[in-house]
Write a structure and sequence with these properties.
Pathway: Amino-acid biosynthesis; D-alanine biosynthesis; D-alanine from L-alanine: step 1/1. It is built from 12 helices and 19 strands. By secondary structure, the chain is an alpha/beta fold. It folds into 2 domains: 198 residues, TIM Barrel (Alpha-Beta Barrel), CATH 3.20.20; 126 residues, Lyase, Ornithine Decarboxylase, Chain A, domain 1 (Beta Barrel). An 8-stranded parallel barrel has the order 2-3-4-5-6-7-8-9. It has a 5-stranded antiparallel β-sheet with strand order 11-14-17-16-15, with no helix packed on it. The chain is elongated and about 80 Å long. The mean pLDDT is 97. Pyridoxal-5'-phosphate (PLP) binds next to β9.
């Protein structure tokens, strides 16, 4: 491996393959697999990840917003791409890039139909999203009649899938609620398919749904976090491999005298005799948010933990290395796939792996290990 000389996010495609195969092993033969690659594939590198998964013959991709899908098309992704959060202002981008919109309320449904008719589309693939308890996006069950009537008025669109999203698939204390969502979606989907006279693809499982609710796998599953190596608990994560390692280097070492302070607002004051600190070239603009400051987060240098002291700056953090034998230029691990995973680091600061990894900013260089 080349020497680390700046802050990099190393992405291990072998680990990605492992996670994909592990999650797939939980499915019945024939269940389709959709990779959720929104938010730069959870901060990893959507183009690299999607083209790699496409070569592993994945069935589908999903992004949150249309522009994310357009970027994948530019990178050579030809598999179908579902846009989870369709906004009317993006209809042009959707059509130009053959993206498939999720339609979730009467307004966006009728606006999209008008648009598709104007553009002389025939059977343009769309997806209908139902809200079964998350109360975020989606039609309610009682809208079904209206949607069916509306769809029957046009040849311009075709319902490629019906889907819903689980609110608490990781929380087994909410099992009754989740089973109720599953039951409710199955009944909505069944009636809807009968009413339109053909059978769309049905899907409602995210990663935790795949691991905890086989009865919710249906025709297709939608995995994000699991592909990147995390579940929503230690148990769920046990067989997954984090694909990304955030590494950096020591820019400068300081010896801090008793009574001196470190960083903005003098947030750290040295009460000890003499301590040693290292300044590292990454900060909140790189995705290490201020919540990791003041001992909530740490990095690893030569196998030893170095806590972040004082406030996180925009472009730098300072860590306590009093007890570590190291020098300027040495490699530093912020998180990796082994001891300090993003899950562990996030937990220490009261957040979740999703937030830490999606927050690693585009300023950090991605290095893909093939
Ligand atoms: C983000 C998202 C997913 C992926 O969830 P994970 O928990 O990361 O597997 C699936 N479906 C929808 C609708 C989403 O927004």
């Amino acid at each position: 491996m080349p020497k680390v000389q700046e802050t990099i996010l190393e992405i291990d495609l072998k680990a990605l393959k492992h996670n994909f195969e592990y999650l797939k092993s939980k499915l019945k033969n024939g269940t389709q697999f959709l990779a959720v690659v929104k938010a730069f594939a959870y901060g990893n590198d959507a183009e690299e990840i999607a083209t790699y998964l496409q070569n592993l013959n994945i069935d589908y991709f999903a992004v949150a917003y249309a522009n994310e899908g357009a970027a994948l098309r530019k990178a050579g992704v030809t598999k179908p791409i579902l846009v989870l959060h369709t906004l009317a202002v993006n209809f042009d981008v959707i059509l130009e890039n053959c993206l498939e919109p999720s339609l979730y309320n009467a307004k966006i449904l009728s606006e999209f139909i008008d648009f598709a008719e104007n553009e002389n589309q025939k059977a343009y693939p769309i997806h209908i999203k139902f809200n079964t308890g998350l109360n975020r996006l989606g039609f309610s069950e009682s809208d079904s009649g209206y949607i069916v009537e509306k769809i029957k008025t046009t040849q311009s669109i075709k319902v490629k899938s019906l889907f819903s999203h689980l609110a608490a698939s990781e929380d087994l204390n909410e099992k009754v609620f989740t089973l109720n969502q599953i039951h409710s979606f199955k009944s909505i989907a069944n009636n809807f398919s009968k009413a339109i006279g053909y059978q769309p693809i049905l899907h409602m499982s995210n990663t935790s749904g795949v691991l905890n609710y086989p009865e919710a796998h249906l025709d297709m599953v939608r995995c994000g976090i699991g592909l990147y190596g995390f579940g929503n608990s230690k148990k769920e994560s046990a067989n997954l491999k984090p694909i990304a390692s955030l590494k950096t280097v020591i820019s400068q070492i300081h010896h801090i005298k008793k009574g001196a302070s470190v960083g903005y607002n003098r947030a750290f004051k040295n009460k000890d005799t003499l301590i040693k600190t290292a300044t590292l070239p990454l900060g909140h603009a790189d995705g290490i948010s201020r919540i990791y400051g003041n001992n909530k987060g740490f990095v690893t240098i030569n196998g030893k933990k170095a806590p972040i002291i004082g406030n996180v700056c925009m472009d730098m953090i300072m860590v306590n290395i009093t007890h570590i034998d190291c020098k300027e230029g040495d490699e530093v691990t912020v998180f990796d796939g082994k001891t300090t995973t993003a899950e562990v680091l996030a937990e220490g600061a009261g957040t979740i792996s999703y937030e830490l990894i999606t927050g690693i900013s585009q300023r950090v260089k991605r290095v893909v290990l093939k």
